Structure formats: C-alpha cells, structure tokens
Amino acid sequence: MIKEKTTDQLIKELWMAIAKLYNEEASKYGGTMAIGYVLLKIDPQVGTPSTALAPMLGMEATSLSRTLKKMEEKGLIFREKNPYDGRSVLIKLTEYGCQMREKSKEVVLKFNEVLNERIGEEKLEIFRSVSNDILKIVNNREVF
Amino acid sequence: MIKEKTTDQLIKELWMAIAKLYNEEASKYGGTMAIGYVLLKIDPQVGTPSTALAPMLGMEATSLSRTLKKMEEKGLIFREKNPYDGRSVLIKLTEYGCQMREKSKEVVLKFNEVLNERIGEEKLEIFRSVSNDILKIVNNREVF
DNA sequence: AAAATTTATTATGCGTGCATAATAAATCTT
DNA sequence: AAGATTTATTATGCACGCATAATAAATTTT
Q1: Mean pLDDT for each 10-residue chunk of chain B (144 residues)?
Q2: How far is CA B130 from its chain centroid?
Q3: How far is A97 from chain B (nearest CA, A)?
Q4: Domain locations in chain B?
C-alpha cells in the first residue's frame, strides 16, 4: 500500500481543482476554461496564426480544432486568410471576443496574484522551477 | 499580454504530460490511467468500501461510477454486499485485478522514484508543500 | 408500520484532451 | 504543368472529469 499521497496524484488533484474553479468563473459569463486559455493567446490587435496557437498552449493542434470551431460559432473569433501561406490561417478576435478576453485575463491575473501573495514569490519560484524540471523529465520520456 | 507562462498553465501542462505518460504505460497492458488510480486504492486483501474510494481519489463519487463499471466489465473487480450498510458496497479485486494493481503500482512507484532522484528530496518536499497550499486556497475558494 | 428523509448509485449530457484517419491545400519534383 | 509530397485542418471515437437529475435502498420520524 502506498501511504502518503504520491506527487503525481497531488498534481492531478491540483490541476482538477484549478480547472473546476476556472470553469466556474468562466461559466459566469458564458465561457469555458479552454476557451479562456485560447483567448489569452490571441493577439487582440493583429490576431495570431492558427499554427502558432497549439504550441503556445502546449497542446495538440487537433485538440484545438474543436475549441476554435466553438469559438467561431459563439462569435468570439473569425478566420482571415494568410496571404503568405494559404494553408495557415490568421485567427482574429471579434469585438465580443476582445471583451471576453479581458474577462479571462482578469481571472488568470487575479488567481496568480493571489498565489503570489499567499505562497510568496520565493517558494512559488521554486515550485515553478520544479514544475518545469518534472515537465522536461516527462516530455523527454526519461522515466520508462 | 501575459508574457511568461502563468503558474496555472504550468500546472495544466504538467498534469497533461503526466496523464499522457501514464496512459501510454497503462495501455501497454490494456489499462488506462484512471483505472490504475482506482486499483491502487483498493485493498487487495479485504477490499474497500465504494464510499471510501472517491474521497481517497479526491474526486466525485459520480465520476467514479463509470470507471468502476468498466472495471467490472473488464473483470478487474466485483462487488460484495456490505452486511453493515446495505446501501454501500465493498469493492474487491479479482485475481486479474490484483495482477493489474501490481502493474499500476510499479508505474507509480517508478515515476515517483525518478522524481526523487532527479529533483532531490528537499526541493520535491517544497514542491509538494506548495502544491498542498495552492490546493487548499483553491478548494476553499479563497480566490474569487 | 407507513411516510418522509437521507444516502448511495446510476444515467445522461457536456467539456476537454488524445489518437488515428481522412481531407484539402500548398509546395516540391520531375 | 502533372504528379508526389508535405503540411494544416477536420472528423470520429475514446477516456475522463464534472454537473444535474433520476433511482433505489436504507434510516429516521411520526
């Protein structure tokens, strides 16, 4: 029997809790967590190439496709042809999308602000550094 | 624009990466991440009351229901009536379930062992402590 | 004991990510 | 320019968590 909570499960619970909180906040103005994350990565002035979004979000392009479709249906974004590469597309925010982006930004900023206050910059920096180290170990498959 | 990666997104990416890794490992012997986690919480000798499982896993009982059903279909567990509380049920491992539990245990132990080696106990302990602090802040809704 | 309440479980639907396969459009070869 | 290849996007299905509502069974109240 594994007595104390393992680190992996701790990370799982932590992320699930944050996701739940973010979804609660987002649902107050008709959004979702995933949409909020995407909004934040779109440049409100000039837009962002669709190909750049997935890497920025650390996720697969295929996973993004559905979310972008929903965002288009909700009137948050529109697609503009990139004259330099006809396969890629520029994702741009609508006026409504810009407003929602601000809401998402507030939530994320507020949350991270609270973390800074409550945890303290020093410990939080160690936490972030260790997170990055684990991420590298996992992504480079240095475990199995 | 938020320049550096926010802590929440770091946690998201970290968990997604671990989940992916665990799913890869589990799929090698016909399992899944979620099933692995449940298996670990079931006492191989005397079984575990179904009501105790969700809290141990830090998840909702309703979320567990489907996974338990699949585990039953796969022949990993069976349910035994609890004579002391007819509403609750004792979840027990089959022989096959015990074997799979060992496999899951190996994966989790190995992963956490590597973390200890590579990160170092001291930094890892800070990481875990901060994780718990953030978890409390989020679960107590001390943010919004 | 019958009715009301509590508690455990299941059903259903949604959101979100992954993987694989299929499309579609551009680029490269010849 | 025609065909082959690469690259971006979408389609589909699975896993997994949540929420809400519906069931079912026990416990408590009367």
Answers
A1: 82 97 95 97 94 95 95 94 71 96 96 96 96 96 89
A2: 20
A3: 15
A4: 7-139
